[in-house]
Amino acid sequence: MRTFKSFASDNNSGVHPEILKAITEANKGHALAYGDDSYTKKADKRFEEHFGKNIDAYFMFNGTAANVLGLKAITNSYNSIICADIAHINTSECNAVEIFTGCKLLTVPSKDGKITVDQVKKQMHLLGEQHHAQPKVISITQATEMGRVYKKEEIKKLADFAHKHGMLLHMDGARLANAAAALNLKLRDITRDAGVDVLSFGGTKNGIMSGEAIIFFNRKRGYSTSPSKGFKYIRKQGMQLTSKMRYISAQFIALLSNDLWLKNARHANKMAKLLEKEIRKIPELKITQKVETNGVFVIIPRKYIKKIQRQYFFYLWNESISEARFMTSFDTTEEDIENFIKAIRGTIK
What we know:
The two termini are 30 Å apart. This protein folds into two domains: 16-255, Aspartate Aminotransferase, domain 2, CATH 3.40.640; 265-348, Aspartate Aminotransferase, domain 1, CATH 3.90.1150. The longest helix has 20 residues, at 260-279. The chain has helices spanning 17-26, 38-51, 63-73, 88-91, 96-101, 117-121, 152-164, 176-183, 231-237, 246-255, 260-279, 302-309, 334-348, and strands at residues 56-60, 79-84, 104-108, 134-141, 168-173, 198-202, 212-216, 286-287, 295-299, 315-318, 323-327. The chain is of the alpha/beta class.
């Protein structure tokens, strides 16, 4: 079978060899099921090394579940969740947040996926009004759906505002590693230390075969106990308690060891910058977003799109303006980019 590289999504990438090795090593003998194994305990320690003590980390199959169940744990059905209009939880999770939490999503317009306190304030005028859903969570994506990055100060400002009003800050960290690499900061710097209460930590887009994590930072804002209290039951009800959890845990052990998460993210980001550089040499194409992580957003003349897609599949992000999204991964090479650019040039010549 012919192998190929696409620029459609970092979900399309392979699995890092170190991750495969970790899965193989975990595949020896028997181990206790449902997270009572030694691999899961070791993975918990790895998360503590990166995020600090007194956290609760739970593993599950995918990012939608991490977002949805994490939000369910910190809301009631009469609450609302404030997010960007292009947030993944609003556009790409098939109403799962609304269905499983019962909450209303209140969206604010955003061109780059980032939101500000001033925008959030506009959704706060109904606070305490019994006829309307009550804001409980601000949810942000890091890096955003447009590949942009929140600085630590921006996150802290949102967190402080949320906490002042008895709310919580949730972060969709599907590409948190890419954001940390871009900012040259530790994972903890832009999550726990910035005031994030609940984090969906992505692994699949950064070299893992299958697995995500939800992390509670054990703050008690708005609760008599930690918001993670009872989450093991929510995870079970949400059909995300895997019996052979050691295989997910082993992957996170490898990812969070020897800076593998950082090396993968840095490489993906570097390849995106190279792709950006080459695209800027093609006058027919226009880059629409500042390239900060591993996503490049490009307007392509409509007549060329299908022809290029026959050679390299990619997603059309905004059909109305003919804007495409190109994603690089930990396994993207300079040769891949060179060949991709040749295909584009050959199409529009």
